[in-house]
Records
---
Amino acid sequence: MQRRVELDETLPPVRVPARILHEICQHALESVPEECCGLIVGNELERYRHPVRCRNEMTALHHMDPDRYPRDGRAAYYMNDHDVARVRKEAEEAGEYVTAVYHSHIGAGAYLSALDLAHAEHAFFPFPDADHIVVSILDGRLEAGLFLRRGDVFLGRALKVAAT
Ligand SMILES: [Zn+2]
């Protein structure tokens, strides 16, 4: 298993619609000092169609069981189960599916941490085929990375806004 996945600057950036990147960044900024999280829904023709916010339950989990959840929402995320179930149901009804999971990092870069990897690769993680997007808020700067899943390996690529 990879310990941490950084953006690979040698790979070309992936372009996503401005409204999607804008919404994710907005969610990240509104959630400071906690990490935000959510899902992106799409289909075969348009992989990243629209983002849906999910509540980050990590602070509540941390207070309930600090041994099992040693970090709170400032340094980790756990998507609210009901939010996830609702997004999944609505996507299915629209003939779509969850194509990506996003979350933010406060004071850290746009990489997939060892914790993020363990979470994504966990047997109960609901979207084993989804890509991951990380928005970093660091030193007053926003940066976004896309981590494409290829079997057991993630490839980190910068996210840029598409002109369309
Ligand atoms: Zn993370």
---
Amino acid sequence: MALRFYNTLSQQVEEFSPARDNTVRMYTCGPTVYDFAHIGNFRTFTFVDLLRKCLRANGFLLDHVMNITDVDDKIIRNAVAQHKSLDDYTAVYTKAFLEDCDTLRLERPERLVPATAHIDDMVAAIERLTAGSHTYTSDGSTYFRIATFPGYGKLSHNDFSGNLAGARVDVDEYEKADARDFALWKAPKEGEPAWQTPIGPGRPGWHIECSVMAIKYLGDTLDLHAGGVDLVFPHHENEIAQSESLTGKPFARFWLHAEFLMVEGQKMSKSLGNYFTLRDVVAKGHSPEAIRYLLASVPYRKQLNFTFDGLKSAATAIDRLRNFKLRLESESYPEGLNEQLAGRTAAAVEAFGNSLNDDLNTAEALAAVFEYVRDANSAMDSGEFRGGNAAPALAFLDRFDSIFKVLQPTVVANEILDSEVESMIAERAAAKKSKNFARADQIREQLLEQGIILEDTKSGVRWKRK
Ligand SMILES: [Zn+2]
């Protein structure tokens, strides 16, 4: 099945391929680095990671740009309050974001671009919009006049007729369904840091950074633009208005949006106490693989209900796959090939690929994997599995893991090494021999705290990780 996506712009499922050569020119909205990113943010970033992998699985090359929003109202407010420069303030959260991406095994885009490195480009774009009569200034700030862009509303499918004139906003946070002229350039308030530019002192608004960096690196028309569903309006609508006013061409051919994440059935919020950063969830003892699996398991256009029970089920699901893999690699099977099972394997591989190509239907793709694992396990149990069936089964698991990336356990940084365990066991044996049982018990306790279980057997001490 050819790759197809639901396009927010057309409100249809459409077959996807890049417009020029074999490279997908894509832009996805990145983090605002004013704090640690939460699991709702990572739902979207995990979706983007799956999207990249599925595009590549279809033979496409990628040129993917993601912005780092390192200047906005909240960043300025916090940096000023902490007497830090913007750079010093955002560096901490940019680094944390990249570490979190590594934790979740998210690939880096080909270009990761900070907004503050492109101020000159943004100023030049605003000057061009002004030359085209799309802007006006007020109190030193420059606004985009929405009434000059007749296509406004075509992405969010909101009807803004009669709601466009006059009013304007200069904050980065908007009320829903509130169409107002938006700030392209904001004059500094008292005590705020500012760039000195030909259009006056100040800083860029949030929307202009994405338009400018997308066009700069990818050209006037992108193949694909993606982000969270909360960005459809006003952010992406405003990106379209600015970009198309600048170039006179369609800004992006495909728009993909990932739905919200709920926590235990409720909207995540600090006041409800159900607001979690990725770090919070990992600190509760959940593995990054389980978190990644849970975030990936629900198709991106469905709301995802993040629950701690769901995380445990995710860990169990991963264990089933790891055990299956171990069985394939360690057990021996009679020679030959079970033809029926070989056909079953091929069908499962095809179902897996087709499900992903069907607008990234990860739930169906996972169902194809687990139904196959169940059948293959029972073929092993009944002695019908043959040596020739092992390699295709392992290849299917590899294929699965090239997208889902959960089979390798995360190595915990402070985990005790095998050699350290062995030397402590030797020390314990020596302590026992010299009848220092208190020390021997102490070592056993110490190892247990680090997740190492000792078993005294006739043939010596065996140990395993908890
Ligand atoms: Zn954006």
